[in-house]
Known about the structure:
By secondary structure, this protein is an alpha/beta fold. It has 2 domains: about 15-210, Response regulator (Rossmann fold, 3-Layer(aba) Sandwich); about 230-520, Alpha-Beta Barrel (L-fucose Isomerase, Chain A, domain 3). Helices cover about 35% and strands about 20% of the residues. The chain is built from 18 helices and 20 strands. The strands form 4 sheets. It has a 6-stranded antiparallel barrel with strand order 12-13-18-17-16-19. A 5-stranded parallel β-sheet has the order 2-1-3-4-5, sandwiched between helices. α3 (about 75-85) links the parallel β1 (about 45-55) and β2. α7 (about 180-185) packs antiparallel against α9 (about 200-210). It is globular, with a radius of gyration of 24 Å. The model is unreliable at about 5-45 (pLDDT under 50).
Amino acid sequence: MGDCKSLQNRMVCPMNRRGFLAAGCSACAGLLASSRILYAGDSDEKIRIRIIYSLHGEQQDGPDWPNHGFDFRPVMQNITNELTRLCPGFKFLPSMATGSQQAQKLLEQDKNEQIDGYLVYQMNCWNNAIETIIGSGKPVLYADFLYGGSGGFLVYTSKLLTCSSVPTNFGFIPSSRIEDVAEAVKCFKVIKKGSPAADFAAVVAGVRIARTAKPTDPACTADPLSTLPTDECIGRLKESRILAVLNDQTAPSQSILGIPIDYVPFSEINDAWQKADQDEAKIIADRWQKTAAGILDVSRETLVSSAAMYLGMKSVMHRRQANAITINCLGGFYGGHIHAYPCLGFHELCNEGLVGGCECDRSSTSAMVLATTITGGRPGYISDPVLDIAKRQIIYSHCVASNKAFGPKGPTNPFYIMTHSEDRKGAAVRSILPTGFLTTAIQINESRKEILMHQGKTVGNDPCDRACRTKLAVEPTGDFEKLFRFWNDWGWHRVTIYGDLKNPITALADALGYKIIHET
Length: 520
């Protein structure tokens, strides 16, 4: 793999939610000690583990992570081979499941097999086999194929960790190192030698915590930042306006953080794109060609069309007196409602101190408006995060990003223009964002009046070709293990801003009656 690499109601949980991770740090110590003794006295009888690769199919025929056309066959073969090499005494039985129905069929077939446990490998994001397999009562290890299954892995793991009856036969590990997965696989030996399946979660947690990379130097590059006073920020949020382009149906207006949100039909955006000044669009495309560090597999025609989309969006924003827009880009593009991805247009808007937000995510777009408002222009970066214990990193991954992380008047960083990752079409952005700086990541839940927050130091930009183009790697401050608990209630997206915004956002939350939830 390398560096680029229905929960059943009858389940009974003797631990509460906090106790689950506590067990991973204490009770697992004794279990691991006993497992080391058991390793030394292995018999010739092999431990039989069913690997279930959870995915659409052997070769991806549609747009999704990792990308259209991705061939999983060599990846699955390599995982199976490496685990066989690293785990002597084990026999691995590889299989595939697209979701719960096929997972249930595998359980039925295995009633006639001697299966000691299951390894569910999340290869695509939303193929949910894990909950069905956990219902078997046998020990289940859950692993993430990073930049392939990470969204589902985080959401389903969070759901299991925070449900009313946490399944203790369930352990999980997300790592770019196959060696970490192999060490977690060896935890099945503890169960084979007589420990109850209920001990499995604690044993795997001990391995996961022990193999999580240690924190590096937390010192960050100096980044003086003046933020807007709370009262003034609240006033400017109320004066803002978000346009949400969802479909061609009307919808009632709403607000988040006091920011009005108006719904706009696809047809209005598409009409503005068609009417955009082509000469002006060509000038913008010329600029992109001159300033981009590279353009990969994107034609001149696509650049001009993307520039026209930017001009069209901006004209609608001007007409409707809005400073932010978010579009259901995937639904609009795949449904034929819009004919150019808005990614490069969002990039331009964010560079100008305006807001372009992906996927008609109103909460994330509101967080971006907050970021730009409170910092005097710094853009928020919306992303689909990935967690990697091998590096103790959260990698913020998306196909849209500014290359002016410190605001319109700040320095620029290199950026590449590439196809949109999932379908290899259109034009999107890989921004090589600055490293060594403190960032603040947030998400907003308007109905609960909560703001989720964590912070971290930027440490790199992952060039892996799988999944979205921009991949900002951050080493989070605080408790890395705590990060696994929030994705089901909060969704996958986070919004990251350069700068220490902990205190000003907390003050804003207090003034608005919101609660801050710390994610680490």
